[in-house]
Write a structure and sequence with these properties.
Layout: E1 27-31, H1 39-50, E2 57-61, H2 63-72, H3 77-93, E3 98-99, H4 101-115, H5 121-131, E4 140-141, H6 143-152, H7 155-159, E5 163-170, H8 181-188, E6 195-198, H9 205-215, E7 225-227, E8 230-234, H10 243-247, E9 253-257, E10 274-278, H11 292-298, H12 303-350
Parallel strand pairs: 1-2, 1-9, 2-5, 9-10
Antiparallel strand pairs: 3-4, 5-6, 5-8, 7-8
Helix pairs in contact: 1-3, 1-12, 2-3, 3-12, 4-5
């Protein structure tokens, strides 16, 4: 198609009812989890801001929950997206992940205790007492992530902002009970499901931040978080695309931004919702190793990688949405011409006959 004949979708005055915050529809935005690959969502959201998309409610898992928290903090969607992209640029310029030596020892201990059950228990107890703090079960020190979150997200702004739901997964961290964390997690995966919690229901600031951090607490990479007496970890273990949270709240339309193409979600589970999916046109993993490729990509917060992902997210959102917008524009033009024709016909019917 001749580019000059295409509508100018960068025009801020373009209004399509599906994307209009004042629309009669309740419009949701769903942000999937995927660690550092969340920079892709920042790029996709930049295109959505250009076409005047504005959600009524947001749901996110893991990094999607953190991205969603920034978006929910600002009444103006364009300003929110700008702030989110600034935050990702900052993440690329700082060292986000700091290894926690004690946490590494704890994980090694849990693996050995799980897969070498015949090993003398007295040895594990001895090692545990001298080198391992059972409360420090994370590979990475969470202080930097906590600091950046508190700088970027103001609880008071979220409470007065857009409705935000996050997915979290129940953890087996029970105070006062000494148990094997790894075996417990492997057991619970078979029968547990994610929980959807509304961020605005958090009564105090610390609880609100803990809920956001819980959704992004990759097991063993970051520590579980306590929410109202229960412990939770990364919601991606149970629901990486939490459209269900918005569906039950009456969302009629939604845009879902994925961070992968694995079949982990079925849009046909939501027959009452009109859904637009933005999916990566190429793998967001740095290499195609089955597990290692995904893990390394989730932990790569380098400036170069973030820039690449943001650009790809923008391009994919444009690729996905431009044909839809073009259809909306064509329909709007047809309706306009039809209205003009009706008006002219009525005018002619009201004229006196010509003799």
């Amino acid at each position: 198609m001749n580019q000059s004949l295409s509508p100018d979708f960068s025009n801020k005055s373009l209004k399509i009812s599906f994307f209009d915050e004042d629309s009669e529809h309740k419009i949701g935005l769903v942000l999937a989890g995927g660690g550092a690959k969340g920079a892709y969502e920042a790029g996709a959201l930049r295109y959505l801001a250009e076409i005047n998309f504005a959600p009524h409610a947001i749901a996110g898992t893991s990094i999607g929950a953190l991205n969603g928290a920034v978006i929910a903090s600002y009444p103006d969607f364009s300003v929110a997206v700008e702030q989110l992209n600034i935050l990702w640029d900052k993440l690329g310029s700082e060292k986000v992940l700091h290894l926690n030596p004690k946490g590494m020892k704890q994980v090694a201990y849990n693996v050995a205790e799980t897969f070498v059950p015949t090993f003398q228990s007295w040895f594990f107890d001895f090692i545990s007492e001298i080198v391992i703090d059972r409360d420090k079960v994370s590979l990475f020190n969470p202080n930097t992530v906590e600091k950046l979150l508190k700088e970027a997200v103001k609880p008071s702004a979220i409470r007065s902002g857009k409705e935000l739901w996050v997915a979290v997964f129940p953890a087996l961290k029970i105070p006062g009970i000494n148990y094997n964390h790894l075996l417990g997690m492997l057991t619970v995966l078979a029968g547990s499901s994610a929980k959807w919690l509304r961020v605005q229901d958090c009564g105090d600031d610390e609880l609100l931040c803990n809920l956001l951090l819980a959704s992004a607490a990759i097991p063993f990479a970051f520590p579980p978080r306590e929410i109202n007496g229960k412990y939770y970890v990364d919601g991606a273990l149970g629901d990486n695309v939490p459209l269900g949270a918005l569906s039950k709240e009456g969302c009629t339309h939604a845009i879902v931004i994925h961070l992968g193409n694995a079949v982990t979600w079925n849009r046909h589970d939501f027959p009452e919702q009109a859904i637009i999916e933005i999916r990566p046109t190429q793998s967001l993993n740095k290499n195609q190793a089955l597990i290692a490729g995904d893990i390394t990509s989730m932990l790569d917060f380098s400036s170069e990688r973030i820039s690449q992902l943001k650009q790809l997210g923008y391009q994919d959102a444009k690729y996905c949405l431009e044909p839809i917008l073009r259809s909306f524009t064509s329909l709007s033009e047809l309706r306009l011409q039809n209205d003009i024709l009706k008006n002219k016909t009525q005018e002619l019917q009201g004229d006196d006959p010509v003799w």
